[in-house]
Amino acid sequence: MLTSKGAASRHADLLVRGGTVVRLEGSGQADIACVDGRIVSIDARGWSADQVVDAHGLHVLPGVIDSQVHFREPGLEHKENLEAGTRGAVLGGVTAVFEMPNTSPLTLRRDDLERKIAAASRRAWCDIAFYIGGSSVNAGELRYLEALPGCAGIKVFMGSSFGDLLADDDVVLRRILEHGRRRVAVHAEDEARLRERRSIAEASGDVRDHPRWRDVDSALNATRRIVGMARETGRPLHILHVSTAEEIALLASHRSRVTVEVLPHHLTLCAPECYERLGTLAQMNPPVREARHREALWRALREGRVDTLGSDHAPHTLEEKGRPYPQSPSGMPGVQTLLPVMLDHVSEGRLSLQRLVELTSAGPARVFGIAEKGSITVGYDADLTLVDLKARREITNRWIASVCGWTPYDGMRVTGWPVATIIRGCLVMRDDAVQGYPVGQPVRFDRAMAITPA
Length: 454
Ligand code: DOR
Known about the structure:
Blueprint: E1 11-23, E2 26-35, E3 38-41, E4 48-54, E5 59-62, E6 64-69, H1 82-91, E7 94-99, H2 110-120, E8 127-133, H3 142-145, E9 151-157, H4 170-178, E10 184-187, H5 191-204, H6 210-213, H7 216-233, E11 237-239, H8 245-251, E12 258-262, H9 264-268, H10 273-278, H11 291-302, E13 308-309, H12 318-321, H13 338-347, H14 353-368, E14 384-394, E15 413-423, E16 426-430, E17 433-434
Parallel strand pairs: 1-4, 1-5, 6-7, 7-8, 8-9, 9-10, 10-11, 11-12, 12-13
Antiparallel strand pairs: 1-2, 2-3, 5-14, 14-15, 15-16, 16-17
Helix pairs in contact: 4-7, 7-8
The structure holds (4S)-2,6-dioxohexahydropyrimidine-4-carboxylic acid.
């Protein structure tokens, strides 16, 4: 019930006035009123407010949710930390992130998760949830761990990428899938094949061989195995950073159980050009591949066979990236550039703004069962990303907030830019500057997902 503020009094904490509001039902000019962190009206013409954001000429999107970031804290803060990572997020128009468990220590237990939540308190600029890593040491407890507040779900690395988290054995994988019911997020690369083929990279020392070492079958075999196990166990999956045309074809017949993430890196960069231009800066797992894969990802994305876009923000320092390949670590930053890069694709006509919003807001909310986020709806969290579709800007390393201090898109000119970020009614970014203080809170999930901890 609304008392001193709200519909009855037509006075809000925050009013976003005059923007083109993008909803799944369609777009149109509207004023949005926010009270106590929630949207209370999307038809708020004539309302007053403590704070008014003028959105004329701008598009108002539901807050962008990036469900794959590595913020490296604890243990690897020379690459990234929760404050800088989330600051980059809001500068890039992102309002919530899900953080990955390959930190040091790994996020495997209740204590590890609670320490991350405590470390994010009053330091996170956006809302945040944390994955628990699925492994042989905690497989039996995952049912209880995945239900903890602030947990985004379980993440499994089938192939080693960066850090020590690995579950490559079928017995362990099946135990993980049998213990719990939330959707399991999977890095699908086949560890045995990666080991077998590492000599390719070692022999050449040439990063252009990265997609040859970690080839199509490395990804496809792992995806096929885990999808088969999901069918046997009835467990829903989310396949992260799908990178091959072959996996896209396979996953088309598993839509009821298996959701799909693709990355702006895989949609934007292309082999071998990216390796020739960027060297090991473009090295990531699964690799950026040749044009035919990029085309297949775009086709799937346009045809509704992709559910989410995540950045896989995976920062390493320039010094680390400068080591000779393959000692150079895999991963590129991306949380801050996700939206500008994708808005540029919108401007180039590669996807509609509506489709982008489905992939960055409604998609993550549906796939992960996020409570009261993911669309501009009365009663939902007032998470809004304001963008100027006409702004022409250049992405530069100087703009990047990440501790690592670089982006693979340095020097890229884009059309479309996030100009304001609002999280639960708080304006935290305007015109490339953060404002106020870090308001981030743990993301909440639908109660139906929760199983009472024993
Ligand atoms: O390239 C990658 N780097 N892929 C991953 O899955 C992990 C990540 C990292 O943590 O650096």
